[in-house]
Amino acid sequence: MNFATIFYAEPETFARTITLLGQRVEVEATPSTYIWHHGDGTSTQTSTPGARFPAKDVIHEYTDAHVTVMPSVDVTYAARFRVNGGAWQDIPETVTISGPAGSLRIAEATAVLSGSYE
């Protein structure tokens, strides 16, 4: 039996205020895209970070059991800035950060009835 494996990430928005040439500049980078590498040669792209169990926002069903895979996620950030509290301006480029791979052992479950049934 193949159970859905739940994936999720907990990325944070990056926000900084700096002084540049005497001007107050606010910069903000927000996660926008996630590429989930399942470790079995497949990947999925989403616009959400998934969520912990019992949510099943981002899932993958492995076809091979008794193997260890190394899943990871790449998070792409979109950025914007504003000067002296003015209007926000989007930065057209994005930045992708590759997350570290984690070891995941794939197991197989078999349904078994137990007890006395007459």
TrEMBL record:
Species name: Nocardioides iriomotensis
The name this protein goes by in its record: PKD domain-containing protein
